[in-house]
Amino acid sequence: MAAISQGTGSKFFFEGESGRNTRGLLRLIILVTIAAAAVASRLFSVIRFESIIHEFDPWFNFRATKYLVNNGFYNFWDWFDDRTWHPLGRVTGGTLYPGLMVTSGIIYHVLRLLSMPIDIRNICVLLAPAFSGLTAFATYLLTSEMTTSPSAGLLAAAFMGITPGYISRSVAGSYDNEAIAIFLLVFTFYLWIKAVKEGSIMWAGFCALFYGYMVSAWGGYVFITNLLPLHAFVLICMGRFSPRLYVSYTTWYALGTLASMQVPFVGFLPVRSSDHMAALGVFGLLQLVGFTEWVRTQLPSKQFQTLLRGLVLVVFAAAFGFLVLLTVSGTIAPWSGRFYSLWDTAYAKVHIPIIASVSEHQPTAWPAFFFDLNMLIWLFPAGVYMCFRTLKDEHVFIVIYSVLASYFAGVMVRLMLTLTPIVCVAAAMALSNILDIFLVAEQPVEGAQPQANGNPRANGPTTATEKLASAIPDTLRSTKTPVVGIYSYLSKSAMTGAFTAYLLLFVLHCTWVTSNAYSSPSVVLASRLPDGSQHIIDDYREAYYWLRQNTHQTAKVMSWWDYGYQIGGMADRPTLVDNNTWNNTHIATVGKAMSSREEVSYPIMRQHEVDYVLIVFGGLLGYSGDDINKFLWMVRIAEGIWPDEVKERDFFTARGEYRVDEEATPTMKNSLMYKMSYYNYNALFPAGQAQDRVRGAKLPAQGPELSTLEEAFTSENWIIRIYKVKDLDNLGRSHQEAGAFEKGNKRKKSGKRRGARVLRVD
Amino acid sequence: MRLIQWASLGLISLVAADSNLTLESRNILPSTFKPPQHFQNVNLVRNINLEKNYVRETVNVVIENVGKEAQSEYFLPFEPGTIARIGGLEARDKKDPEKGGFVAEVAVTDEQSSTQFYKITLPTPLQPKGQLTLSISYWTLASLNPLPAQIGQTDKQYVLYTFSAYAPSAYLTQKQKTKLKLPTTDVPDAVTLPKSLNTEGKEDPQKQGTSFTYGPYSEIEAGALQEVSVRYEFTKPLTHSKLLERDVEVSHWGGNVAFEERHWLTNRAASLKNHFSRVAYQQSAYYNPPMAALKELRFPLAIGSEDPYFIDDIGNVSTSRFRTNMREANLELKPRYPVFGGWNYSFRVGWNGDLSGYVRRLKTGSDGFVLKVPFLDGPKQVEGIEYERVVTRVILPEGAINVHFETTIPLISNTTSLHRTFMDTLGRTTLELTAINVVDELRDRELVVMYDYPFSARFRKPLTIFGGILLVFVVSWVVGNLDVSIGSKVKAA
Amino acid sequence: MAPKNRQSTPQQPPKLPTTTASQTPSKSQSKPSTSSSSSVRNTQDARQIAIGVWNNYIDATPQRVKLLDAFMVFLMAVGLLQFVYCVIAGNYPFNAFLSGFSATVGQFVLTASLRMQTNAENKAEFERISHERAFADYVFGSMILHFFCVNFIN
Fold first, then answer.
1. Which residues in chain B have Cβ-Cβ distances shorter than 8 Å to C129?
2. How is it placed in the membrane, per its record (chain B) (predicted)?
3. Do B337 and A713 touch (CB under 8 A)?
4. SS3 C98
5. Which pLDDT tens digit goes with each residue over A375-384?
6. S-S: A195 plus which of A204, A374, C40, C63, CB 3.0-4.6 Å?
7. Are A191 and A206 in contact (CB under 8 A)?
8. Residues B202, B85: one domain?
9. Is residue B248 predicted with pLDDT exceeding 90?
10. Does B125 fall in a domain?
11. Pairwise CB contact (< 8 Å): A246 & C3
12. Fold assignment, A538-745
């Protein structure tokens, strides 16, 4: 901005009061354009498929939102859901982060009030894109606090709007907590920086309010809970304690902690769990330091200072010891399992297979960084380095944030999400600095803005500013290191050209990634027909709708937990386990039922009043995300509870292979999951030719036989198979005996069927 | 939201099953009611058409007034329980069909168990000794029952139809016979009556191709019944719609008429003996044999219809095709899964039509409009579809007044209310019409709605929107100019 | 807890000047032990320092700030009382205790913040915050605080 006001050749619009307004308006228009681009780039899935809720967790959020909208807030708060975790049920109101549902509920009611009765489903689908627009705005604000260059904020907003790392969790339809949480995260950080800079109770109070909102929206709030204290602590250690820090931190902590405790799911955690103790500790430390500083102002004595420093250290050590003592004695809950897995990536695999079994909890593969962040990933260190150069309080924050988030993103795939904002901020700072240096003259910043965020081919402003720049080389020379090459047309156009190309490539990459990788609803699969047209495979919904329409309202469906939320949302039937994996034993029970012999599984299913069993089988279509591929996790989780009855080793052949064909182990072949997957499957193929297309295995000629279950429904492409659990036999026989008794009949029938096929061949 | 909607509508439809009786009973008769015997049926010929999955009966009867005074009330009896399933009853003078139908209404006794009546009022009382040829036609819904009730997935389906060989009548019938029209010659069972009953002493029934004839019989007492039944092959779905809700939304600004139909279908066909087997289904797909499962629905829409959609509770159903050209606009829908006997399927379809194809401005006044739409569209199936209850809503533009309607479909209720939706201030005038026991033969019946849409009402919407936007600007301007900073105030002071 | 204990020391004297003397030694005793260069001279130093602090405080602090300080002392006393009660009588309605305790702590830090913001010595730190603005912020923060407390106490 300073550069602008210096400008001699600038027009009337860029000077004085009206210039301020014009620039403000321009900035607003640019931001609105960025927000529109951010929203638009997330609509691929709606255009390509339909307005549908994606994946797994969003289905629960959607169901909860519908409950909230239909039953009102207080019922939602006290919601006991007896249609999940049968027969336990779930105190849903107290075990979820309600921020997301309440947000869309409020939007729904406000729109109704404005006589815009939009379907709640559409609100849920479009919530994430709408909030991504806000995130872009929040990123602009945050970045603008970091640097004086206004172009950096706009660049950061543009980056944030389209970077795949964030889009991956916020496409239309991915109605998950992260949809609003990232906005809240960035905005809370902005308010924090603002509070630290101004030392104002108001900003800190807003920061606390948004922190409370964040707590109500996402479990990732712990990141804020630890990052802000760390920032404060580092500042203290750097000897940068200031009353501003005291004001902002203590206000934030006092109000924010109270706000966070309003969420029933969080409850007393902020004073009980170790995850939150760092914040408390820093709060105490700040009181100490604040008091010491006050005393110091009263009596500036050197010796006294050293004494007090010692005192502070001792109190800190004592407090830490006290904390450890409390943790050991159990008053304060130890760190949660997910937290341990952050430090030791192998921890989860050994101790909590259920956490490890989720693909988004796996460590990040290296290419993922480039895939999700593209050019930003190499601009990012440059931005961080620049923060080191002008190390003000807020830059310390950037440095800490980037270090921590980089580590976490490396450990867990899903935490790439927390890294993305800081990468955008840092990269934008670096890039804007580069552009400023190479373009700067009188009014180059304004020139850089449209070029950066519209991202486009408009090279007009660039060349215009270059002309201006060349007109007054003297002012430039004084600004930076006197390397002559920088000021020549050649180097300038080369640099700007290169970066324009990079930016264009970035846009292309983002669009490509979004449209190809992140826009699949995963409920609906798409494939290409030979003629290039899109063919939709809709087996999931076919089977869920069948359940919804043709089974009893209270029929219990047993499936692996991945599908629990979808069954609840789309089929509207009670489930045994779902994606809210709070009860490991219950999940292990299902795992045991799936991985044991029928004689073992049947009593388990009877005990849990299971009516239908649903499995996913991709063998016909070559769909690799099926239950046989997840089977080992079921075995592992079951083994964790019943190590004597279920053994992972038994599912591997002697040579340590996981096979489904003729050489599969007897345990494997007798397991319920195997039988259900391949039951009747070989009838589709000529005798002995049955083929599993996922595992590329030729199946045994003799298909498995089921005696306690019967096939109820199989979807068009066999992806979903639903089995009905038989009632107890009328004559009191076991199902095996009854099956053997009726064998004769069956043989005749199968003979007939074979005859028919021969007829067709002729 | 939709879930609740669905659930509540399901409830309504449940209620509807019972209320079909009560809602129609406008004439409550004492339970001991017996129609006065002042008529006599001279000759009665009854045709029962069983080719569709509902039963259409046409009774041609010559009635004679045997009383001493002129009479105008002719009663038609129905067995208990059936009257709630009778639809589209029409009576007219056979000799003079142009004159239009006579008034026919339900006159039930207050007790459920006894015989119920339809009362046909002749427009001009029949003089003593006078004769008149009545042609009465009606449908009976849900009267075919699969036997056996469970069949294999690819087996043939047989249905049983039970009726009385003597046409039910409240009066003495001198001469009568009943003709059955079957869809097939595969009739394993038809109850044979003793030859002695038959006037001509012939075999009873007489078969001729796909038609069976019971009778003739003479001198049958009032209320006499002779139960017989036929069982014949009908390997087609018995598609039964529990409820059809239909919205017709007229938008003058958009130049558009939007149709939406919400169907709650069930298949009354024989249920599967074993569970559904995908293998058998896929194998049979090659021959495409007749099946009791509902696999496809065809909606022939008005030419020029566009933007169709086919969704259900959990989103878009991708298995639909829309073929449109200058001569036709066919919407072919496939349910997500084949609907076998006992299975349900509910869905909604919608499409748009051009306003000019449906709405005309009346010549008399500049504000008068007339809308002509089909009362229901629904699928057109070879085997037919029966609707237990049809609720058609016509949503007129906001501010439409003086709404009148005309239709030849027998209705049981009509209400006018307001419906608030996008950017409405008052709500749109909505006409809600309910009919019960409708079959797809009535697809072409029209509904004509006349209404006034004054000039002033036409500008309500743009003005509302303009006002809203203006308000936003004013508020933002005011907020933008508010000086809320406390510090600067201090400086000024 | 520790910081408040310390801060209470200089302000207690107005009521009981003698206790200052008896309390400061206890504080000073802990100090020497930390700095490991313990000696009698230190104890005397500490006493002198405390007296010096006290005098300085009495002289240099404006009346308004003293009022704030008194309020802070009161809050600290209430907080301590609650904590002691909690330790002795158990924390059964834990949310009630928490909200009560955090109300005092929160109010304390808010008041401390107000004190800092209005302190003339910190003028440079808070360029953009006038005294009135600081007070308005204080009221705003307190309102949020007590809203949450009331909501949480059930």
1. 487
2. Single-pass type I membrane protein
3. yes
4. helix
5. 888 999 999 9
6. A204
7. yes
8. no
9. yes
10. yes
11. no
12. Rossmann fold (3.40.50)
